[in-house]
Amino acid sequence: MLTDRVVICMKWGTLYSADYVNVLFNACKANISGDFRFVCLTDHAEDLANGIEAFPIPDIGLEEPHWKHGAWPKISVFKQQLYGLQGRGLFIDLDTVIWGSLDKVTHTTGQAYKRI
Q: Which of 65, 9, 72, 12 is nearest to 37 (CA)?
């Protein structure tokens, strides 16, 4: 599927299971109209639902023991040429609950950052 809208999440370590990714994916499907890509950057892609694109967490220049228990991997979403992803991206943490439409965020135009 080619689309310029990408939802990105991250899962590493054991704090969150694949179920959290799958629930977030289903919530996005229910609350974003039209096509979008759902990408999970992860160190364990097992048990992710069909339709979720899994990629390894990009190298951030730190040894794994130094970032494994912190939030450091999240800075990797700003990496240029991140797995060839293009278009507008929306990063959502796994512990986020989606209560309604995300279309105002995912259907924006222009270069301005949007706050929610």
A: 9
- pLDDT, tens digit (0-9, with 9 covering 90-100), for 5-20: 999 999 998 999 999 9
User: Please, what is the end-to-end C-alpha distance for the chain in angstroms?
Assistant: 27
Helix (H) or strand (E) segment spanning residue 28: helix 18-31
Q: Which CATH number fits domain 5-105: 3.40.50.720, 1.10.10.10, 3.90.550.10, 3.40.1790.10?
A: 3.90.550.10
Q: How far apart are CA 60 and CA 79, in angstroms?
A: 9
Distance (Å, rounded) from C-alpha 11 to C-alpha 32?
21
Tell me the pTM.
0.88
Domain boundaries, the chain: 5-105
